[in-house]
Amino acid sequence: MTPTHFSFTTAFILGLMGLAFHRTHLLSALLCLEGMMLSLYIALSLWTLQLETTCYSTAPMLLLAFSACEASAGLALLVATARTHGTDHLKNLNLLQC
Amino acid sequence: MNPYVIMILISSLGLGTTLTFASSHWLLAWMGLEINTLAILPLMAQQHHPRAVEATTKYFLTQATAAAMILFASTTNAWIMGQWDINQMSHPITTTLVMTALALKIGLAPMHFWLPEVLQGLELTTGLILSTWQKLAPFALIIQIAPNVNHSLLMTLGLLSTFIGGWGGLNQTQLRKIMAYSSIAHLGWMIIVLQTMPTLTLLALITYIFMTTSTFLMLKLNQTTKITTLSSAWTKTPLAATLLSLTLLSLGGLPPLTGFMPKWLILQELTKQHLPLTATIIAISALLSLYFYLRLCYAMTLTISPSTNNSSAPWRLKNTQSTLLLATSTVLATSLLPLTPTTLAMLL
What we know:
Chain A: Belongs to the complex I subunit 4L family. Chain A is mainly alpha-helical.
């Protein structure tokens, strides 16, 4: 396992842990998702750089575009949740459980 | 919602699934899954209702996490093996990670907790899309990576799903939650046979889609989401109530109906593979699911006129919904069993 491989794996796993275990605010969940996507962006860019292939150089850009769409959808849902539930606390999302 | 916007969303929904079907590269498959998720979010939240928004948020969080995990596993695979092809993925850690992520995406047993809550917050048409069309893209990926996945992981996922699907549905009175648990149980049956015979997985998925389509459309016709309103459905549409109980028994897997076909063939295949214990366990877990289907049938057909009924009869309004898809899917969901030899000849 190379140091770069180790560093982006650790970054992704830290983001995933934050998403899974730190469940207070919706905003922090969205930030963790964004951190996971950015670590994947670094992984893809470094892979392209290491192999020096030009045909894969669009892949990190596509990933970044999709993660931006995903983040904007997440922020829209944050606004919608704040309007319907009053806060962005994840413990308030309890209408559907029984 | 504006019909043009709905048209764009529905076509992106189709585009995402088609992209995942057509791709052999993990990045494109991931893009298809993301397009799919992003397209269904506005459809889910189109009623600005607290429950709809909450269901959409939960769905978004799980699907985004699963998609990120899939891309992480494929990137790791590319770093280790130098390979982006979907069916060439062979490193044990990455295949396990991808299988876990895909199980989270379709709602298999240890990762199933989002499915009943999300389905409960949606209206019936969106729920129908969620429990049929949204399963297709992850299943295309699951079938492609299946030969390299750890065998005991798949068996554990399958057995846990059939049991938790049966147990979870026992205590529910909301029809959409019952349908969610029925979905979990059926997915367990599909995953059990995935490595020994993937065509049976496809057969079970197709029959499950017919039966679920029929059930959801019938519930939409009667506008019922609870057992209590279901018990007065016969006053509005008596024939449809009878057919709905037949469709539910088909979901439970009783012999003269379609739902028996995949269960029969899966049990036969497991016996052929010298796994009699697994076959016995999932056959017994089907009884758990059968209990809540039977309870729905009891509420629908055995509480009619001569016996006492506590619910008040609803107004009999003229139905204006189109019933072509309902009629087709009900026929498919109840009477496909005689086609078993033809299906076997086509599949095997």
